[in-house]
Specification:
The structure holds two protein chains of two kinds. Chain A is mainly alpha-helical. In chain A, 51% of the residues lie in helices and 0% in strands. The chains are: A mainly alpha, B mainly alpha.
Chain lengths: 106, 241
């Protein structure tokens, strides 16, 4: 895996730069368009700069979705209540996050 | 900065829930080390701790309170991951029934909502596997067909999205993403999971998670700039109301 901190960004080709975009976004937590490290490249590649800004806009709008929640229909609770009174016959093979690690096979 | 709680260093370690869904041979425990930045956005809820304790003792009324407190978050997560109201309601039901049976194993080492959230994600992933979305082989299954794949060009700058994305448009665009893209996008950009955690859950490499997220954003950019007229799932129209 390429160490992006060692990349000479200014001298990357367009294709090389594009290859690293996922890593750039991950490394800089989505704040790329205003990062001085990319300033020269982005100034020379305005379409790429636009892409970065769009990605940042999408990521920002996506974060805002977290707090926008929807209401399930009332029938969901009715079914849960019925299920609570029914012994579990076929519990899925899944445990809760803090369950005993005894059954883990790491 | 998202609203987050202060309990996150207690984040659950990878346990049996994860181990039932991930390839542990390929996923050493060290990869899933606690991430202080994750899930700090679940502030304590008044009365929740008491309800949890009572529910552990089988108090159905207390459990109904927990349902009331968390149903929206759980349902919305299911809806976004599945893109379908009916399936999302079924998974919400499954998640709470699972919770009802397993709440005794909640030890309070993480925020309850974080714990429930993780449980829900894992149930949804298990459901998707049962449906045939084989996440084990991510390359084969998460990559959409050529026609669904995003364009690889950077696009024209005069079609920038900046300042123009509204929630409904984004919800619709997310819902119309191919399932693999949608999952990574929802887990990372909406729910706040880190790439290493997504990689663990989906049994893929961190690089693959980054790459899928990149493709998802490219596809979303296409969709937001060129919205598909009435092609979004009816379920999302319902959800967006």
């Amino acid at each position: 895996m390429t160490d992006i901190s060692k990349l000479d960004i200014d001298n990357l080709t367009y294709a090389e730069f594009e290859e690293h975009i996922p890593d750039f976004f991950a490394a800089y937590e989505g704040h790329v368009s205003t990062n001085p490290r990319f300033a020269k490249f982005l100034a020379a590649n305005p379409d790429c700069a636009a892409l970065f800004r769009d990605f940042e806009e999408i990521a920002s709008a996506a974060k805002a979705l977290f707090d926008r929640t929807e209401e399930p229909s009332d029938s969901v609770w009715d079914k849960i209540r019925k299920g609570m009174n029914t012994p579990a016959i076929d519990t899925p093979a899944i445990d809760t996050p803090e369950a005993s690690p005894a059954s883990r096979t790491i | 900065m998202r609203e987050r709680d202060k309990v996150t260093n207690e984040r659950m370690t990878p346990t049996t829930q994860e181990s039932s869904l991930i390839n542990l041979q390929a996923t050493p425990i060290a990869e899933a080390k606690p991430n202080p930045a994750l899930f700090k956005r679940n502030p304590p809820i008044a009365g929740e701790a008491e309800a949890i304790e009572a529910a552990k003792n089988g108090d159905a009324e207390a459990f109904s309170k927990l349902y009331a407190l968390h149903k929206r978050r759980v349902y919305t997560l299911c809806l976004r991951m599945l893109g379908n109201v009916s399936e999302a309601e079924d998974m919400t039901q499954d998640a709470f029934l699972h919770l009802f049976r397993k709440i005794g194993s909640f030890r309070g080492e993480s925020a309850f909502s974080t714990w429930l959230h993780r449980l829900t994600v894992n149930l949804v992933l298990m459901h998707l596997r049962k449906k045939g979305l084989n996440l084990v082989s991510l390359e084969e299954t998460i990559n959409p067909s050529e026609e669904d794949a995003p364009k690889r060009d950077f696009g024209a700058k005069d079609l920038q999205l900046t300042g123009s994305i509204d929630r409904v448009a984004l919800e619709r665009a997310v819902a119309s993403l191919p399932p693999g893209y949608r999952m990574v996008f929802v887990l990372h950009d909406v729910e706040g999971f880190e790439h290493n955690e997504i990689a663990t859950m989906l049994e893929c490499s961190t690089g693959n998670s980054k790459s899928q997220l990149h493709k998802a954003r490219l596809k979303l950019r296409d969709l937001l700039r060129n919205p598909e007229p009435v092609s979004q799932p009816a379920s999302l129209k319902e959800a967006a109301r």
